[in-house]
Design a protein that fits this description.
InterPro entries: Teicoplanin_resist-assoc, VanZ-like. Pfam families: VanZ. Keywords: Membrane, Transmembrane, Transmembrane helix. It is built from twelve helices and two strands, in the order H-H-H-E-H-H-H-H-H-H-E-H-H-H. It is mainly α.
């Protein structure tokens, strides 16, 4: 349990900073295009990146001990669709005629796990529809691809870090995650009328660009400086990694 708590605490501390670093290039581009940074666009971009990082942490954490993973004997994958329905019918304590079983039924893993998999991608579908203006069929395909990335991450044992998967590759997760993205798309259509449009966000940024104050100039300098720092850091990391990896035989 100690490892789990530490991993979760690290995720909570790390993802706001990572989200800011990932969103920084967008802020730089938007500032140089409009002469100002749209607060709404920065807000939505930061929230979207934070959501993706949080979702990723949720599917990989807690990180177990590799020695423990090596001894696991559980199945690596489930390729039988709708297994979650059969498990609900077999294991869930729900008795429609007995009210006292309803709470236990709702809190049972056979309900909580599928509900979590649906809820995981509802924000993704909502963002694609509202912010990126994707049609419903592209939202469905994108949600499936995101879910497939998550499942392959688990199947690969976190890209080979672990000797075998420590979580199940489940075809039901693909179905439920895709359904969640579709639901998010529908929910976004309901709330879009009360959210700012692209034209409103860009008009606000352009209007703010007309009056360049000292603080605005300072903000622009900070954004440029942070973008340059991020680029220099990435180049340094890339050079360091290249220096440690020997060239393949076909290049020598």
């Amino acid at each position: 349990m100690g490892v789990s708590v530490n991993d979760l605490r690290s995720a909570v501390y790390a993802f706001p900073v990572l989200a800011f670093i990932i969103a920084l290039p967008f802020m730089w581009w938007h500032y140089h295009k409009y002469g100002a940074v749209s607060r709404w666009r920065v807000f939505w971009t930061y929230i979207f990146v934070s959501y993706l990082l949080c979702a990723y942490f949720l599917i990989i954490l807690p990180l177990p001990d590799p020695a423990v993973v090596a001894k696991l004997t559980m199945p690596k994958y489930n390729l039988v669709p709708l297994t979650f329905i059969r498990e609900f019918l077999k294991y869930n304590p729900l008795q429609l005629g007995n009210v006292h079983t309803w709470k236990a039924a709702l809190l049972a893993p056979t309900v909580v796990q599928p509900a979590f998999n649906v809820a995981l991608t509802i924000p993704f579908g909502a963002f694609l529809r509202y912010y990126f203006h994707r049609p419903w069929w592209q939202v469905i395909i994108s949600s499936f691809c995101l879910s497939l990335f998550f499942e392959l991450t688990q199947l690969s044992g976190l890209y080979g870090v672990y000797p075998r998967p420590y979580r199940l590759f489940d075809v039901d997760d693909l179905l439920l995650n895709t359904t969640g993205g579709w639901i998010g798309c529908g929910l976004a259509r309901l709330v879009m009328p009360i959210l700012p449009t692209d034209a409103q966000m860009d008009h606000s940024a352009a209007k703010r660009a007309e009056n360049v104050s000292m603080w605005r100039r300072l903000a622009g300098f900070v954004v440029d400086w942070l973008a340059a720092l991020l680029l220099a850091t990435l180049i340094g990391v890339a050079v360091s990694l290249i220096g440690r990896v020997s060239a393949p035989d076909w290049l020598t």
